[in-house]
Specification:
- Helix content is 27%, strand content 21%.
- It is an alpha+beta fold.
- Among the domains are: 65 residues, wza like domain (wza like fold); 85 residues, Outer membrane lipoprotein wza fold like, CATH 3.10.560.10.
- The strands form three sheets. Strands 7-6-10-8-9 form a five-stranded mixed beta sheet, with helices on both faces. The protein has a three-stranded antiparallel beta sheet with strand order 2-1-5, covered by helices on one side. It has a two-stranded antiparallel ribbon with strand order 3-4.
- The termini are far apart.
Length: 232
């Protein structure tokens, strides 16, 4: 009996001395590499190209009023002064290029860019206000303006002559012509704003190489001619 008990006790002690079985860690199988992405860049789809072009057009339009426009007689401008709501005014630039503004008096505004007009007004008002912050917006153009943006050599605004109308090709010529990167046959006329806006395609080679004068569309005030960049 004692021998049996002693043997059982020995087995228990030996079992306690046996080291635990090591845990085997299984490494996750590596994800298969996208060899197509590594070996070659995916081609640009027509949908991606259209989206990129739309973004470029929007960026160009956002800069439309900041390029080289100078305030002219007949322009309607909106002036606001930060934290001075009673000083907000909408004023038409007179024939001699001036406006009358509270505290500042008569100010010559014609031939100034929008930032220059804001700085001049702020300077005049600083005699009466502490660090005035002035914002000037052009609400309506007195002169008939069109814009040529994108891949032309001199992007900016162009005044439509009073005596005649401008065509697309004439406007591009006045903007210095196409750059070497221009996608000429993807030229567009952007007309109107909001829900009533239009995008009118213009194939320049129909005008220049095929002699199709009907493709040389007449422009209307505030039209934007946009020449995209060639992606190829």
């Amino acid at each position: 009996m004692k021998r049996g008990a002693f043997g059982l006790l020995s087995l228990i002690i030996l079992a306690g001395c046996v080291p635990p079985r090591p845990t085997v860690r299984r490494e996750a199988a590596p994800a298969p590499e996208n060899t197509a992405a590594i070996t070659a860049e995916a081609p640009v789809t027509p949908q991606q190209e259209a989206l990129l072009e739309q973004r470029l057009i929007q960026n160009a339009l956002d800069q439309q009023g900041k390029l080289n426009y100078k305030i002219q007689p007949g322009d309607l401008i909106e002036i606001t002064v930060f934290k001075e709501s009673d000083m907000a005014r909408t004023a038409r630039i007179s024939g001699n290029g001036t406006i009358t503004f509270p505290l500042a008096g008569v100010i010559k505004m014609s031939e100034l860019s929008v930032p220059e007009a804001e700085s001049l007004l702020a300077e005049k008002l600083s005699e009466f206000l502490v660090k005035p912050q002035v914002t000037v917006l052009i609400k309506e153009y007195g002169n008939k303006q069109i814009y040529v943006l994108g891949e032309v050599k001199k992007p900016g605004s162009i005044t439509i002559p009073a005596e005649r109308r401008l065509t697309v090709l004439e406007a591009i010529t006045l903007a210095g012509g196409f750059t070497d990167l221009a996608a000429q046959d993807r030229t567009k006329i952007l007309r109107g704003a909001g829900t009533g806006s239009q995008s009118i395609p213009v194939e320049i080679t129909r005008i220049t190489k095929q002699g199709d004068k009907s493709a040389d569309i007449y422009l209307e005030p505030n039209d934007t001619v946009y020449v995209p960049q060639s992606f190829f």
